Amino acid sequence: MLRNDPQALKQKVKEFRDFFDQFNGAFIEREDIVFRLMLALLNRQHLLVMGPPGTAKTAVSTQVFNNIVGDATFFEVELTKFMTDDGIFGPYNVKRMRDDGVLEHNVDGMLPEATFARLGEFLDANVATQRSLLSALNERQLKRGRQQIQMPLMTAYCDTNTDAARFLELHPDSWAVLDRLMFVTSVGYVSSEENVAEMIRRYQSGRTRRIEHKLDFSVIRDLSDLVVGQPSLFTDALVAKYYGVAIIRYREQRKALLSDPKKRVGIIMPEISDRRICIASQLAETAAVLDARLHVKFDDLELCGHALGSTKQEFTLWQEILKSLQPRFEQDRAKDITIAQNTALAAISSQLDQIEVSETDVDGIKRSLDTIEAQLSEIPSSDGTIEEARSKLLSLCQEKKALLRGRILSAHGFATEV
What we know:
By secondary structure, this protein is α/β, with parallel strands linked by helices. The protein has helices spanning 6-24, 31-43, 57-66, 86-89, 94-100, 127-131, 134-138, 164-170, 175-178, 193-205, 217-228, 237-259, 274-280, 282-290, 312-354, 362-377, 384-411, and strands at residues 47-50, 68-69, 74-78, 116-120, 141-144, 147-150, 155-160, 183-186, 215-216. Helices cover 54% and strands 9% of the residues.
């Protein structure tokens, strides 16, 4: 269990990071695809990549999935506007339909059996076929009348040559489908002379096809269990409160981006749904896991921005909101710490008052006083008042220890000064 083995956690995080780092050394200017695919895998969510033909959208996903080894299966399909859902879920069982009048997919080797999937040319599919994917992408279920299948699908990589914002303008009903794709990014052609030259060198040397490091599926599964499993790593009530504050500000200020034609370029989602907000909160846990931690901090909220928008300006807005809230958060955190310290000091003071120094159970009394001293040493000095109260209790504890020693010595006939 990684929750109880910090070293094992660090090792698996290193393996995971090293695996994805090698793709940045293979593909030029495709760091954003690699990064968001990495986040999608850890969160067991889906990714949409937009861009013109010939921008390595397929190549990146193929190399990543082909180099994940172990107990995982991969399904791949190119969607078209003429395709129906049987091209994704499997052809209908004609014999069952003829004999029993039941529509049932033959799912062997199809999406319902896959751990990972690539759905190519995703926005070329007709709206009906896209909507047939709703429960598969979100609940991981195939629901066709009597046929109910729980799917093992972790992550679907969807790519398209179509601009998703323009697509939604023409097909507003598809928003429900796109909202199931938690990560959205776009790529363009390599533009600078230096990077074009480097791209050619990498291609000619075979670096885009020769990937050395493999990743066992168990690493992805174990790390993603920490993100999506229970108990949650998002346990700090104050961080959760400020995530909510940031979300409300983000929703309001994002409307200004949408109302400005110059700033809304690339923005896809007309609104930020409650579902997206909840799932995006898991990225704070992702940030913690990638840092080999098992608790969420305020700074981890920044990563949530990668699921709350599809453009640089949306992510920048999220960063600015968090930056503006941080001073208030730190003030509230200091107040919470002071309250907790005062509560702890009051409890320790009550324990000290209950300790009667006598020869009876001397060892027990000494252990209690030693424990109290240790507790006091662990309380940080956040301000002068806390330090003064802590010092007084330490002095009282030491006085009781001295009194205990004096009574023991006196009982054995040794004169002592207390």
